[in-house]
Design goal:
With about 375 residues, the chain is α/β, with parallel strands linked by helices. The protein has a single domain (about 5-345), classed as Vaccinia Virus protein VP39 (Rossmann fold, 3-Layer(aba) Sandwich). Helices cover about 40% and strands about 10% of the residues. The protein has 14 helices and ten strands. The strands form two sheets. An eight-stranded mixed sheet has the order 4-5-3-2-6-7-9-8, with helices on both faces. α7 links the parallel β2 and β3. α5 crosses α8 (about 155-170) and α6 crosses α7 (about 135-140). The chain is globular. About 45% of the residues are buried. The mean pLDDT is about 95.
Length: about 375
């Protein structure tokens, strides 16, 4: 379901004319604006900026010695990167292969699949805030899950639309297109795409019932009003089945709009219990079957060794009752085929200068450590 720049802008203008000042202010891309990061495009070619965005400085960690992927993970990255290479070559006449954004998304894929395995679900319905370059959602769909995704930046949203269409074709439902109508769930669609102004309508009847909400790399980058609103909507979306949660591994980049300590209190005020804080964060609706694992908001951000040990002892005491606790020991690699072979992460992607994402040559000349020979 292709969404033109003109149609997106027209739909957004119409929606903004009916919104309050606080709603418009809250759902602006505030942290991007603080740093001058471009998130609005006027020409189709500008969407190439978002093919591999926000992970350029992560090469030393993502490609370090000892970082390995399962064969299934490597094949997933190659599959999706070939889709992107074909899309960019045919639609933009410039072939680009994503380099680091795909590698970065693997850890969260492991989290979602590890969670699904521990709660006994094969396929999940996942709501994702801030998909960015959209590779996590691409991997989840390839792994058999359903995706509902929301973004508040025009440029990223339009790139997501192009990639989702290339991945799923007619199995995409995009609510930013003209005449899309009110939000509704369609189980026949693999991907449902929600613009920020439609997300604001979820204060009434909730059309979505999801197993997992993801907010990777974005929570503290939201304005405080948007974050508080989003957490309450997140709580409403989650199924009350004792197996559903709001998950993330990273809060986001440096931002003046939120802090780690304040965030945990905001989750508490939105009706969540925190139940994991080590390798990842997990929050579940209060008074549910998983709430016996609850960690107090102040203990979530505690640095004192005795408080941290107390939390660890309490979780260990509940380990037998809650298989989820074992995810603290490490997230299992995505390996549905059962193959046990691994491959070094740095060997999965051919870092060819002719396929390089836009930012890398500039950063290489600026002295940043990036893959490939771009100088």
């Amino acid at each position: 379901m292709f969404l033109s720049i003109e149609d997106y802008d027209s739909q957004e203008r119409t929606a903004r004319s009916r919104l309050s000042a606080r709603e418009i202010s809250a759902f602006g891309p505030v942290t991007f604006q603080d740093y001058g990061y471009p998130v609005v495009v006027r020409e189709e070619i500008e969407l190439l900026r978002y093919v591999d965005a926000m992970h350029e400085y992560s090469a030393p960690n993502l490609l370090a010695d000892g970082v390995v992927l399962s064969i299934d993970e490597a094949e997933l990255i190659r599959d999706v990167s070939e889709v992107v290479l074909t899309l960019t070559a045919t639609h933009f006449q410039r072939p680009i292969r994503p380099w680091l954004a795909t590698l970065s998304a693997i850890e969260t894929l492991r989290l979602v699949n590890g969670w699904a395995g521990k709660v006994g679900k094969k396929s999940l319905t996942v709501f994702e805030f801030g998909p960015g370059s959209a590779y996590l959602g691409a991997f989840l769909c390839r792994a058999g899950h359903r995706l509902i995704a929301m973004d508040n930046s025009q440029g990223f949203y339009l790139w997501q639309n192009r990639l989702y269409g290339a991945l799923a074709g007619d199995s995409v439902l995009d609510f930013a297109v003209p005449d899309a109508g009110p939000l509704r769930d369609d189980p026949t669609k693999v991907i449902t795409h929600v613009p920020w102004w439609q997300f604001l309508t979820l204060t009434g009847t909730m059309p979505f019932a999801v197993d997992v909400v993801l907010s990777e790399h974005c929570l503290v980058e939201m304005s405080q009003d948007a974050r508080r609103f989003a957490l309450r909507i997140s709580n409403q979306m989650l199924k009350r089945d004792g197996a559903s949660a709001h998950l993330f591994e990273h809060l986001g980049g440096t931002s003046r709009h939120g802090s780690r300590a304040a965030l945990f209190h905001e989750f508490d005020a939105a009706g969540f219990d925190a139940i994991a804080k080590r390798l990842f964060y997990a929050f579940v609706p209060k008074s549910g079957p998983l709430s016996d694992l609850a960690i107090a908001p102040d203990d979530m951000a505690a640095t004192g060794i005795f408080r941290r040990l107390a939390v660890k002892r309490r979780r260990n005491a509940l380990r037998a009752r809650f298989p989820l606790v074992s995810l603290d020991n490490g997230l299992p690699r995505f390996a549905p085929s059962g193959r046990t072979e691994t491959v070094a992460a740095r060997e999965v992607i051919p870092f060819l200068a002719s396929e390089a994402p836009l930012d890398y040559a500039f950063l290489a000349h600026a002295g940043v450590t990036v893959p490939g020979n771009l100088k």
